[in-house]
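User: I'm writing a tutorial on reading structure tokens. Could you give me a worked example: one chain, its sequence, then its tokens, then a sentence or two explaining what the tokens reveal?
Assistant: Sure. Here is the example chain.
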Amino acid sequence: MHIVREVTDNLYWIGANDHRLTLFENIHPIPEGVSYNAYVLLDRQAVLFDTVDWDSCRQMMENLEYVLAGRELDVVVVNHWEPDHAASLQVVLDRYPKAKIVSTEKGFMLMEQFGFRADGHEIVKVGDGDTMSFGGHTAAFLTAPMVHWPEAMVTFDVTNGVLFSADAFGSFKANDGKLFADEVDYDRDWIDENRRYLTNIVGKYGPHILKLIGKAAPHLSEIRYICPLHGLVWRKNIEYLLDKYQHWAAYEPEENGVMIVYASMYGSTEQAAQALASKLVERGVTNVVVHDVSNTHVSYLIADVFRFSHIVLASVTYNLGIFPPMLNFLEDMRALNVQNRTAALIENGSWAIMSGDLMNRFLDEEMKQITVLNERLTIASRLKEGAKDDLDLLADSIADSVRSAQG
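And here are its predicted structure tokens:
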């Protein structure tokens, strides 16, 4: 049974939704699933834009055969060769032996590495500014290296204003019947999964995202649809999405607020984190979230780091070092190039309180443009009533910094 939706005249979504996969890239939890998007344009030539993950191949092929309705497939455009999009390509090529394949030079290198057989198929290598006519529609190609693989490109149909954006503008979460972002309450139900996808999958490559936006700038006013490889299609309020990406790609805080991340063995550091959260809210800083680093998947932590202007790291000392899950979180922050944030520290220990100095050193030496507030809360085993003044001082410092950031 086909499951197809029309994007615009003669353009169809033929992808699939996956609720069976539990870990995207075998790393990131996707409790609400994920979509794999592929699209077909019916012009004088029939054109397929990308394919889907192997587990969804049967559904995509049923969709493709339904849309083609007996026609041959003339062109396959591969914007991105990662297996969650290209794994089904061989089935398509075997079923439609006359289809030509369009991609970048590096893309065809990856085609060989992944073992695709293209015998008999015409290979068309494209680069920045190249165009191709499919009949009434003309497509322009822009390379998008490191968004988030080196071979990636985007395709812009200059005739109908459709941008096939590869992994740019994608999101976790299955579409489940919806196709367009305006068919949902995006700010309520989708933006968190969009942010988590971008920051964890592509976040390291912010400068490359900004470069791609710069390349596309001459066409921005012409874009009427954004068709990503995961998530929903955008046809309204595209400025909203672009603004989010400008913040994320430039490592600018999306919101003024405080993310408190704590590492606690027996509850004492957790108590301090909660006490600080209460003090901040009393001071009018109500945009506060609190995470236990030990039982919150790091992908959610990274998403909130990109979201908030301020972060509090509260860690027990463990074997004269930083508590291992907290250290892992710091390493992920570094790997994903987090910067332009203000941090505050809470340290705890029973016989050697060292976590504060070690976290401070990591932020200073291993990361870029992280401002560490001078005030620090030090706990010896447990937070005592006598520590109220130190807690108030830290809360005042953070609250003043947040207000200053708000201008």
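What the tokens reveal: The chain has 13 helices and 22 strands. The longest strand covers residues 368-380.
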